[in-house]
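Narrative of activities, Objective 1.

The group set out to show that a structural description can be obtained from nothing but a protein's sequence at a throughput compatible with the screening campaign. Below is one input-output pair from the validation batch, recorded exactly as produced.
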Amino acid sequence: MSGSTDNKDKPRLIVILEGATLETVKIGKSKEGRYNLLNCDDHQGILKKNKKEISDYRPDITHQITSLCSHCKNVLIEFDPRVRIPRTYKRFAGLMVQLLHKLVIRSVDGKKLIKVIKNPITDHLPPNCRKITMSDEVDAPVRLSEYLPTLPKDQSVAFFIGAIAHGKDNWVDDIIDEKISVSNYALSASVTCGKLCNGFEDYWGII
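Output recorded for this entry:
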């Protein structure tokens, strides 16, 4: 949905997952141990021991969404639009562990598919990009079919979506242009992203 990296001059849809918790933990002794992606299902004991909020560790939310950028714990991760995210969470977790340790995932021909990039996020957005947060705290939700035509057709748009189970959506209040809601009900990040992508498919005439 973002458009190919070969079409950087064309307006693009950019999705940024905010608050995605991707953190590794070593299980087992030093030489025999292995690294896992810390999550609330498999590592409750470790999270409690380190006084961490269990519900914050939901990397499965990130797995459910194919995104361009994921912003987690002040680490910025960029996904190439052509990357194919593993279908199973287990394979996704292994991929993220590899990424967090090596800082880049390459294809068999050497192309960078996923990489850790430098903050701030604004350095990686197109010039004059409109920045919008998807929020369930907005009083009046909008219909995307009515809202999207109000955006300039020659302007790229970046949507910030919370990759968290619950919490405030004030992560990027200092840089966004506006907040919108697309439902009267609280939606998961994956459903929100799906509605957004479907809305742009209709708006841009993509079949």
